[in-house]
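TA notes, week 10

Several of you asked for a full example with nothing omitted. So below is the full record: structure tokens for the whole chain, then the designed sequence directly under it. When grading your own attempts, check the secondary structure regions first.
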């Protein structure tokens, strides 16, 4: 009678991506890579790890892709310490060891600077984090950084921009950096649902940091907490809407791929605002849908 094979935690996590959660995780990951043309031969990609479930899963997905890819590319697993407390720093390091992710850690003073700002410390923190990641990645010879934003981040950001930012603005699968020449940002988990990330986490008995911000360490205002953030408000709203329309999230996601500019009174491209009046007379008819 043969004994059942016992897998190490990292092996179980890797195997579950390909086997148990292939439809929920691996397939949408590969779809995003191919559909949005995120990775090319010879790329050197800095996989940016915050210590969350999303970024840790992204690291494992990228490792698997590198093993099975038809063309070579390089990975650097980058952890920026913006001023984590000791518990969170140790948790990130221990999870990286557990999952066999060879991380490179570098320190910054992002939390100290952002938390000293009276005006929107969260916005300043996000901008500083991104800048430090680009800078370190470029110094390591990388031409891309990969962030762990997923399907739900995309639709929540779209709704938030309309409700609280007075604009229709989404989160693209990739974009060129405006401040770091030759650098590009990619989002390989663009099509993966958060509920499936949580299922993978629970199946593998993994625990990751949630809110590491010194400004909101109790997590009550954190996007991943129980909170009072605008993102949490949108999460709650979408859950309510989903009760009556199970496809509401899919509809929002599909809508950002099917924007009908002819029906908008105004839009921006390249930072320049445009009005529908610019081409109204030339078209010689009312924009579709506004008759």
């Amino acid at each position: 009678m043969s004994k059942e094979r016992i897998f190490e935690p990292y092996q179980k996590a890797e195997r579950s991506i390909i086997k148990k959660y292939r439809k929920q995780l691996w397939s949408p990951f590969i779809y995003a890579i191919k559909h949005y043309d995120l990775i090319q031969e010879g790329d050197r990609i800095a996989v940016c790890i915050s210590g969350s479930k999303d970024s840790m899963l992204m690291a494992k997905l990228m490792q698997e892709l590198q093993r099975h890819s038809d063309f070579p590319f390089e990975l650097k697993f980058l952890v920026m310490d913006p001023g984590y407390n000791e518990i969170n720093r140790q948790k990130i390091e221990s999870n990286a060891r557990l999952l066999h992710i060879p991380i490179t850690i570098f320190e910054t003073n992002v939390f100290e600077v952002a938390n000293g700002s009276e005006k929107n410390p969260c916005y300043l923190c996000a901008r500083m984090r991104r800048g430090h990641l680009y800078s370190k990645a470029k110094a390591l010879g990388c031409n891309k950084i990969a962030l762990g934003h997923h399907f739900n981040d995309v639709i929540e950001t779209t709704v938030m921009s309309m409700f609280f930012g007075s604009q229709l603005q989404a989160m693209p699968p990739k974009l060129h950096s405006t401040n770091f020449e030759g650098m590009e940002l990619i989002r390989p988990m663009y099509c993966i649902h958060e509920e499936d990330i949580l299922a993978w986490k629970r199946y593998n008995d993994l625990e990751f940091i949630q809110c590491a911000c010194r400004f909101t360490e109790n997590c009550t205002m954190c996007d991943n907490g129980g909170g009072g953030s605008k993102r949490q408000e949108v999460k709650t709203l979408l859950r309510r809407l989903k009760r009556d329309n199970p496809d509401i999230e899919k509809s929002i996601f599909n809508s950002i791929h099917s924007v009908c500019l002819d029906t908008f009174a105004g839009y921006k491209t390249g930072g320049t605002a445009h009005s529908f009046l610019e081409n109204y007379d030339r078209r010689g008819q009312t924009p579709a849908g506004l008759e």
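The longest strand covers residues 74-81. Use that as a sanity check on your answer.
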